[in-house]
Design a protein that fits this description.
The protein has helices at about 25-35, 55-70, 85-90, 115-130, 140-145, 150-160, 170-180, 195-200, 215-225, 230-250, 255-265, 280-295, and strands at about 10, 40-45, 75-80, 105, 135-140, 160-165, 185-190, 205-210. The protein is an alpha/beta fold and about 300 residues long. The two termini are about 35 Å apart.
């Protein structure tokens, strides 16, 4: 059914770097295995958390192919593909190898601040061109404009291959309107880790998570328990994660989650400029919380 493949806990994978800022593929394989073994339901490659904005087109193609190969069909793959130049995005579809890719996650155009009609036409063009299903991504804190519930629902009704939205506006009333009026099978996915339970409670089907990079077992237990109606278990795991998840974003994403992964010995704590590593205070706090809660 439409967006059912993307039910549960997806993880927005980090892109690990070596000290010289080249891509650390050995560490990327460790992250992929860590998250799959931790119980995630699908991988999102080169979303915001993957620092896609600082990768070259050749690097993005290499990272996508590497993740598809390492996942080896064990779970669905979503590829982050969006931007603020609609014509260039449409042209770019022709150069992407979609073998093993189950959907794209396409962010609302940033900086331009399009109208609702502009957003509709942008995603309509993408839906008409994309050879795989499309998951919309509304994150006004990064893009500078909010895609309204009405625009989301209009797209969901008009294009069968627009299968879900990652809703990261933080506006729970807006999310509720989508949940109440969406077509059958269209997925509402939380884009905020700490709003996952609230989103599921009002009809969401899960989350695309940053925290699941570092804490996949606890995060997946929380998400799956919530979806299966085991509320007490879901809350118990949510409260274990609450402070750590907040700390992940204290110095921006993915600075915090890379610090947590580095503390666990999975990757090096390296980001590409203009992003910088989390502060010493944040790194210390994350280490204390990881140890305290056993996450």
């Amino acid at each position: 059914m439409r967006g059912e493949k993307f039910r549960g806990a997806g993880v927005a994978l980090v892109t690990p770097f070596n000290d010289d800022c080249s891509i650390d593929y050995a560490a990327l394989e460790r992250v992929v295995e860590h998250t799959i073994k931790g119980g995630v339901d699908y991988l999102v490659v080169l979303g915001t958390t993957g620092e896609s904005a600082t990768l070259t087109p050749a690097e993005r193609a290499e990272v996508l192919r590497f993740c598809v190969d390492k996942a080896a069909g064990r779970l669905p793959i979503v590829y982050g593909y969006g931007g603020n130049n609609t014509a260039e995005l449409l042209k770019g579809f022709d150069s992407i190898d979609f073998k093993g890719v189950d959907a794209i996650l396409s962010v609302s155009p940033y900086y331009n601040k399009p109208s609702q009609e502009g957003l509709y036409r942008h995603f309509a063009a993408i839906a008409q061109k994309s050879p795989v299903p499309v998951i919309l991504y509304n994150v006004p804190g990064r893009t500078g404009s909010n895609m309204s519930a009405d625009t989301t629902l209009r797209l969901a009704r008009d294009f069968e291959n627009i299968v879900a939205i990652k809703e990261a506006s933080g506006n729970m009333a807006q999310a509720a309107h989508i949940a109440a009026c969406k077509p059958e099978g269209f997925g509402l996915i939380s884009g905020d880790d700490n709003l996952t339970l609230a989103m599921i409670a009002q009809g969401g089907q899960g989350t695309i998570s940053v925290a699941a990079n570092a804490f996949p077992e606890t995060f997946c237990r929380m998400t799956h328990a919530a979806l299966e109606g085991r509320s007490e278990e879901a809350r118990e795991n949510f409260f274990k994660l609450l402070d750590a998840t907040e700390a992940l974003f204290a110095d921006g994403n993915p600075a915090g989650v890379k610090a947590a992964l580095a503390y666990k010995g999975i990757i090096n704590n390296v980001l590409r400029l203009p992003l910088a590593p989390a502060s010493n205070a944040t790194q210390t706090k994350l280490a204390e919380l990881i140890d305290k809660y056993g996450i």
